[in-house]
Amino acid sequence: MNKPKTLGELKNSVWGTPEIWRRTVKDEMRANLVRKLESNELLFSGIVGYEDTVIPQIVNAILSRHNMILLGLRGQAKSRILRNLTSLLDDELPVMAGCEINDNPFSPLCRACRSALEERGDGVAVSFLPRTDRYVEKLATPDVTIADMIGDVDPIRAARSGLHLSDELTIHYGLLPRSNRGIFAINELPDLAGKIQVGLFNILQEGDVQIKGYPIRLLLDLVMVFTANPEDYTARGKIITPLKDRIGSEIRTHYPAELEQGIRITEQEAWLSRHPDERLMIPKYIKEVVEAIAFQAREDKKVDKRSGVSQRLPISVLENVVSNAERRAILNKERKIVPRICDIYAALPSMTGKIELEYEGELKGADKVAQELVRNAVGLVFSHYFDPIDFQQIVNWFDLGGTLKVSEETSSQECFTQLRVIQGLPEKAAVLGAKKKDDLALLVSACEFILDGLYALRKISRSEGKGYLAVEKKRSEVYFDDQAGRAKKSYN
């Protein structure tokens, strides 16, 4: 089907019906949303964990034809949600050819398009705008001016055209008019100066602005969406009351509520498809520990909850974990790449820059806090798989003087040679699906996870110099153990 090239051809097409060309952007998004709901289509691709919370609220806002603001801490997919809104727009939209503000051919706003329509009538040229070009996003910063958002007089254009500066044709339009008949998004709204917010409100509420003292009426057709951090919403910046009142729906986002949701997001976003030949195998417990680090950090008193712990933390950590395992495999000329717990500790640089610490955390140091988070995460996941009581035989091996030190660069074969001397350890690793005859690298990873789990639960100890070893008992503990033993002996 050939697309119309002139207004006359457009009038005789499906776009020429009044129900279509008179439809606003909010009506268009509402109609497409209703169609998707009726056919049970996926609304927002790549969004995990919001199915029962955030997405229903967004649906209600669109059905209500509201402008909306997403309030949430960093790394909660706010920008991705806004960009996904374009899926609710039509595939393409007819506009006046060459128009800076995407004018409707049937009802143009700008002076140039109105003049062209008067001169050429149905012969005026039209073009089609794809949905991806109907989304405009701006990061709010204190240096943003009203000229950036609304527009300004262009003296060069006036001089070349021989026009007076008060002529509407001399205007260089800003981002807001250029997003006409589309979606205009502003990230971090509170950072926008108050006078700029007044300009936004005025053009939305009244449809008129003043550029260099000249009033211009622009009845723009668009959907405005915003994002903000809940803390910044009231502390760092301020939203003027008329603009806040104009925002129909205020929607709160959140971090994943369950570990499995977080793992799905991390797997979706992390760069893990670097070995298409399936050389890379990431055990489930490694993914769970990486995700649990973020969950632990969000609850830790030493971490600033007002800043939040972004979902980018587990994504970056998992990528670093895989890279460290990849480096070990390259150094030892091993084909199979299986991450271990030591690789998570090696990924500390991808954690420390993503957590803001409270005073107590600053005193302790970012590295120490990150190590504690890893240890707590390992203990949490280990307790999900095992009961520590079942590992008394392994604990006794260390209590009798056994020690084990394994480097993060040690090959799987060398690691297994050291690990198999610990009675019962390889057999316990079989619970995690690790068997020597199947995959030595996986078996070593599972054994190290068990040892670090016992360390996390303080059943054994670990030091930089000696590696894993027995927990050093205090003199009082030894005394009471001895007394208990004597009492038990005499009782028997």
Note down, in words, how this protein is organized.
This protein is α/β, with parallel strands linked by helices. The protein is built from 24 helices and 13 strands. Strands 4-7-10-1-11 form a five-stranded parallel sheet. Strands 2-3 form a two-stranded antiparallel ribbon. Strand 12 and strand 13 (467-469) form a beta hairpin. Helix 13 (259-269) packs across helix 15, helix 14 packs antiparallel against helix 15 (312-331) and helix 19 crosses helix 23 (440-456). The longest helix has 20 residues, at 312-331. The protein starts with 6 loop residues before the first helix and ends with a helix. The model is unreliable at 474-480 and 482-492 (pLDDT under 50).
